[in-house]
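Tokens help. One example:
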Amino acid sequence: MSIQNSRIKRFASNSQSSIENSKLLAPAKLNIRLKVTGCRPDGYHELFSIMVPVSLFDHLELEMTFRGPIRLTCQGISVPDNEENLVYRAAQAFFSRTRRESGLSVKLTKNIPVAAGLGGGSSDAAGTLMALNDMCSNPLTSEELAELAVSLGADIPFFLKNRPCMARGIGEVLEPIEKWPGFWYVIVTPSVKVSTAWVYANLKLKLTTGEYDSIITQLESRSYDIAEILENDLETVTASHFPVINTIKKSLMDRGAKGALMTGSGPSVFGVFESKDQALSAERHLISRDLGNIFVVEGISGLNIDD
């Protein structure tokens, strides 16, 4: 699916400014870089990350009702359809913050692998917040929406941007990258489960300093090698327990990737390719290796995919 053809329009059910129905696509993300820069008293880690949304999407359909509960139905990859789901919690938080008593029906089609380092749950939550804000005639400013997002999860504010960003703090301090290269990516998600809490608990902290200034210098040079940017402090922890991570990385590099890296706390691994043809060629060779689910995706750069 091309990004251009994936746009889905919202439909107004009447002539008023509020919108009762919304359909949107929630993209996955890749951590091009993830460095741990500090540990906070509340248990969160301070990070520096470069994150890029990519064209692997969950689908959300929302319908506002006059009264009633929040109803969430899910299809595709199995996920909870209750308060355990970030979509449900995002809707609850929005209605509480705006003091609205509307009912809501949400249909989630889950395509992004779960607990895979791809941010699917966070993206679904961000999509829900943005859709509800639009449907209710924008009662929350962008700043208020971001505050609500970070209260639900550290990655969620990024998905309000839907463009390549540098992230600091716990992920909520975001700076868009204006000219990120138009790469294609091959993502391989092996069939292992990784707990983010376990990864951080086993991380031997060697805190990075001067990370922001160093990356800014590289990005401004316009002549950097993407392989020099790719780094993930969490990869050593996950790969030490799941050797398939390094197997996938080597397979991607052998198929011509400019670089390969685990995203988030894993276990998904991606390779960076300069063209769609190169990415598809790598996919054909990787399928026979039976390393996991494979996705060929394009980076999303500054595109509002739910226009």
Q: What stands out?
A: The chain has a mean pLDDT of 90.
